[in-house]
Amino acid sequence: MITVRPGSHVYQLLRLLSVSGEYPAQSLGVLGDVRTVKAMVHKMEAVQNIRLSDDTKLTTRLFHVSGRGGNRTVRLNKNALEILNELHPDALGHYLASFPDNRFTGNQYNIWRNHRIGEAIALCMMAGVETAPYVLPRLQKKTIRPIVPRAPSYYVARNFKKIFEAELNKTSFTRIAGLLFYPGGAYAVYNTRSAVMKWSGFGELKARQELSEIVRMNASLDEVTSALLLGADESIALQTLLESDKSPKRQSRFDKIYQSVHFIPLNQNGIDLLRILTLPDWNERLMSVLFKPNMRRRGHSSIEHDATSNNQFILSHLDGDIARLIRFRATLQTESGSYEVICFPWQVEFLNNYLGGSVRLKPIEMPAVLKALGLI
Predict the structure, then answer these.
(1) 305, 297 in Cβ contact below 8 A?
(2) Is residue 347 part of a domain?
(3) pTM higher than 0.90 for the full model?
């Protein structure tokens, strides 16, 4: 007999599906050891005796897996929907309102859309961000009042779109997967998966303005200036940057829409990076860990950098900000000098390819950074 316990793989997947409806089988590794999670899902495709926390027993198939290749998807079995009551009293009601009668279309676009949403939720959930709409307070557009939790929280796009329903056309938020609040700020969240992100300057600028209105009304923040770009791996970040170079209109480039765009890989590295980016005052804390006060950049400079040492300019790419990387590469082309980039080992190949190998890279292991920030 299987007991559903908070924190277990089955509990995490249930919580995820209660919001996204379905999840790509190829991304199960985001939830933990890929073999373990896949084995759990395979086991739950067969009829199992399941015990809930109040000793209620349920005999059913919990999950249903269908499709092939990139369309292979994990969904809840219709006969097991009552188990959502184990998560929260409102979980089942929210699920049925989002996915009436547990039905899904076979349309490839809809499947991929749900998969993008599901991966974003999974990454946030594993980083300790609250993602369940039935737990979070509803966003509103009536008065300016801070209603979002102080702890990091993620709102799926289809939920906050409703508060602007009378004003927005149907395509305003089609590229945005969600909105992530953290103490002191907010990120627009995009998930490009294994495709190159092609930005529509005017459309995304308009969406950012609408998001800024949401954060102003609900979190007492001035605007949204930063975004998270989720992708399969760093090769997607490289391709996105190279594609941006081809843009005939500079104002359409993503670095002109958002001041910062942090690339987050869909794996454990991305989960750890997201834990850093959702800390209160994370940038100042990270700079304090990396540099002595007398090394820190002071005042305005035409050279993009964070610190100097022995006449060498140092930039930290530990935050994965690819918008800033564009400005840094422009510095290399116009300003002579000696440069160093601090990065994680998994960013090295990407940085060498984009910067042309002309900059000294200094890799730092993720556990050391997490420990210094108090996350371990």
Answers:
(1) yes
(2) yes
(3) yes
Structural domain boundaries enclosing 317: 285-372
Among 229, 263, 279, give the residue marking a domain's end. 279
- Domain-terminating residue out of 259, 279, 299: 279
Q: Residues 152, 256: one domain?
A: yes
192: nearest Cα among 157, 225, 158, 239: 239
Measured CA to CA, the distance from residue 185 to residue 280 in angstroms comes to: 9
Phi and psi torsions of 40, nearest 5°: -65, -45
The rounded Cα 185 to chain-centroid distance in angstroms is 14
Please name the residue that has the structure tokens 């269908």. 66
Is the confidence at residue 60, as pLDDT, over 60?
yes
Rounded CA-CA distance 196/98 in Å is 29
Q: What is the CA radius of gyration of the chain?
A: 22
pLDDT confidence tier of residue 252, bands split at 50, 70 and 90: low
DSSP string over 30-49: GGS-HHHHHHHHHHHTS-EE
Span 108-146, pLDDT tens digits: 888 998 999 999 999 999 999 999 999 999 998 888 999
DSSP-assigned letters across all residues of 129-186? -B--TTTSPPP-SSS----S-SS-EEEEHHHHGGGGTTT--TTTTSS--EEEEETTEE
